[in-house]
Write a structure and sequence with these properties.
184 residues; mainly beta; six-stranded antiparallel beta sheet; two-stranded antiparallel sheet; 3 helices; 47% strand
Length: 184
């Protein structure tokens, strides 16, 4: 579904509460528009479980690469023997030794890449989190529920504004059927 410019006043009204003091300088209406948007025709939930020794990030990437389309992490519980995490504002990843409880894992997944944020707790209950990298090795189990968003596709493409591969959302041709390997 494409964005209609006539909806701009409604979108602006929803995003800005006229009665509230602005937290930052006022922004132009053009900056309020999403960079990419879409509406799924349907959703399907997929329940998965991976066991000890599996790289969770790589397993999620492989699952989505085989199926294509647009996916979101609904919930994940389990534990990791170790993890590679990039904290906010840092350039590199840090290796965290486990065992670590997966307190939360959220993200968007596409055949062209995944964007995952994780919160992990150590044996003292100290919780920290960041961007999950490769090397998130399952300790005992990873119980995962993924949501497939039928009728749209996700891609990760270079965004010159951020310098990163960012999410691009598009309608899916072929009658809403997602294509394996991200092909359309």
């Amino acid at each position: 579904m494409s964005f209609r410019p006539a909806l701009l006043p409604l979108l602006a009204a929803l995003l800005l509460d006229a009665g509230a003091a602005p937290a930052r300088e006022a922004r132009s209406d053009a900056l309020l528009l999403p960079r990419s948007a879409g509406i799924a025709e349907a959703v399907r939930a997929h329940a998965l479980r991976w066991g000890p020794g599996v790289d969770l990030r790589k397993a999620l990437q492989a699952w989505v690469h085989q199926r294509g389309g647009a996916w979101a992490v609904t919930t994940v519980v389990g534990s990791l023997a170790r993890a590679s995490v990039r904290c906010a504002g840092k350039d590199g990843y840090s290796d965290w030794a486990g065992p670590l409880e997966i307190v939360s894992l959220t993200g968007t997944l596409a055949a062209s890449g995944v964007h995952l944020h994780v919160a992990l707790a150590d044996s003292q209950g100290v919780t920290r989190g960041g961007h999950l990298g490769d090397g998130a090795i399952v300790f005992t189990t990873a119980e995962v529920v993924l949501t497939e968003l039928v009728g749209i596709s996700f891609q990760r493409l270079h965004d010159p504004c951020t310098g990163y591969r960012e999410l691009v959302i598009e309608p899916t041709p072929h009658g809403g059927q997602n294509q394996p390997g991200g092909r359309r």
